[in-house]
Amino acid sequence: MGRLVWFMSLALLAALTISVQLDRQSAIAPHFADLTPEPVRSFAQAQIAARALAGEDPQEALQETRKLVARRPLPAEPLRMLAQAQIQSGQSSEGLTTIQIAAQRGWRDPAAQEAMLRVAIAAGDEREAARRYVALLVRRGTSDDLLQEFGEILFSNSHGLATQTLAGIVASSDRWRPVFLRRGMRVLPATSIAGVIAQSAEAGAAFDCALLRQTVQALERMDKQAHPELHEVVRIQC
Questions:
Q1: Residue 40 near residue 16 (C-beta atoms within 8 A)
Q2: Which of 31, 131, 149, 235 is deepest in the core (most CB within 10 A)?
Q3: pTM above 0.85, yes or no
Q4: b/e string for 138-162 if b means 16 or more Cβ within 10 A?
């Protein structure tokens, strides 16, 4: 009897080891996901959830992403996938709540930030989308093409919620202002840049005068008729 128990224990250990290896292998070879026993799925569950999200059944996507979050609750990516599934299945308010949690966890992860930004835009949450945009804007590795694409979507209205949120961020910290003035000129609509400068200055933000003058001159070259309010900002601050 003792020998039988010993062999059964070895067999169980071998099965568990193989299952764990299948799970890890599925991270680079998705076809291993279905071969992984469900109780040990982690990387495999991520593949299954991603496949469900790309499919046509929102309820299946919701079920599989919930399993993923239950097994991997800490990273931002499973929460991002759950938020997407919630929105696809019509649970917009739950999806927005999940976005908020995921965004807090994935602040320094550019892939997570872009994913959060896309989901926030799809959900119509301009404030959250603007926050995610800033996280990408201040990161040197983010391409200007990507920032320009999202900038045109989010900040076309110089008085919209996204622009107001960006103005609040610029006004809240000195470190955001030089980045905004330098890089914003390359990737944001001119009307939004002017709107953010005016609104943040009204909220008490002080800009570097040389950089501010350069920005105003560049805006005038882009649109000679626009943004007379910026001259008042220059006059008061410089």
A1: yes
A2: 131
A3: no
A4: eeeebeeeebeebbeebbeebebbb
